[in-house]
Amino acid sequence: MATEKEIVVSGIRPTGYLHLGNYFGAIRNYIRMQEDFNCYFFVADWHSLTTHPDPKDLPGNVMRVLAENIASGLDPEKVTLYVQSDIPEISELYLLMNMLAYVGELEKVPTFKDKVRLQPENVNAGLLTYPVLMSVDILIQRAVKVPVGKDQGQHLEMARNFAQRFNHRYGDLFPEPVAFNYGDNLVRVQSLDGKGKMSKSENEMATLYLSDEDDKIRQKLKKAKTDSGSGVPGEPMPESVQNLIELMKLVSTPDTVQFFEDAYNNGSIRYGDMKTQLGEDMVKFIAPIREKAKDLQQDTAYLREIMKAGAEKARANAAQTLHQAKKLIGINYY
Ligand code: TYM
Fold first, then answer.
1. To test ligand 1's pocket by mutation, which of 7, 17, 22 has the most ligand atoms within 8 angstroms of CB?
2. 230 pLDDT more than 70
3. CB of 47 closer than 6 A to ligand 1?
4. pTM
5. Domains delineated in the chain
6. Containing H/E element for 38?
């Protein structure tokens, strides 16, 4: 008997240009998972509304996220690729799940606290219930694995809590999903200025985007921070150098990484050379994705077709879960 493939869900907000963090935290896993799992990948446009994007930008951003995912290697024939707002079942289950989410626990979520600090003028209720909506994205497809970067680990813990709470109160429905990464740990790609993680909206020069032109990539890496360190063999590597080595591990050959690690350890490292090499390897990695994404973005008819086909499949699966959830809750009158 053929065993059913495990279900996988993950989403990306259309809040700006995709960057290396998105690629290595999430998309790289998507590409491998599409072979072995039943994958649902989506553009989280409702989630992006918590930060009030300009309505003029939203359609283009949604299309670009789709194009960049496909350009990175996602095959729309193998995975279900859709836009969150095309699945109204999500909003209904979100309403139901909000009844099981406590304001106290939501106020304690670190990403909520960060947003309160970053945008004190816009602490909307959508921000508070963000983890509920995210949990529903996952639970409604009955996913068991969720490929995400390290920054989303806490949200996955909440998704498990909500699943348990629902199952306990109303009866077994949801599997408990786990954050997933090939390799041991969830990934966090640091920004080039050494100040926190790479992110869509923060310091542009410290972020490498999948849409960056070759010269821009070289220029950004040239400006990347490198503390010189003590230069004494055996001394621990400063974080900024470690950071560049980590980037090298993502895009350069193992020999290249080894060469610069050895050079650091024996005190002969030349940071200029290291950054030039990393720049060239990064260009080789990003350029084909950028060019393919550019072409795909021109073909809006094709992208719309994919969105539509994906929505149909994602809705059908979501509708089944919603139906069962309502029955278990007692919304079952006809
Ligand atoms: P978002 O749009 O911020 O990021 C999309 C994916 O990229 C990962 N990521 C990173 N990984 C490593 N290093 C970084 N510097 C880095 N920056 C971003 C994120 O971890 C994520 O996997 N809440 C989610 C969107 C979402 C979602 C979901 C994800 C909504 N519903 C359901 C999974 C399942 C978010 O804001 O991702």
1. 22
2. no
3. yes
4. 0.96
5. 7-187+299-329 (3.40.50.620), 212-293 (1.10.240.10)
6. strand 38-43
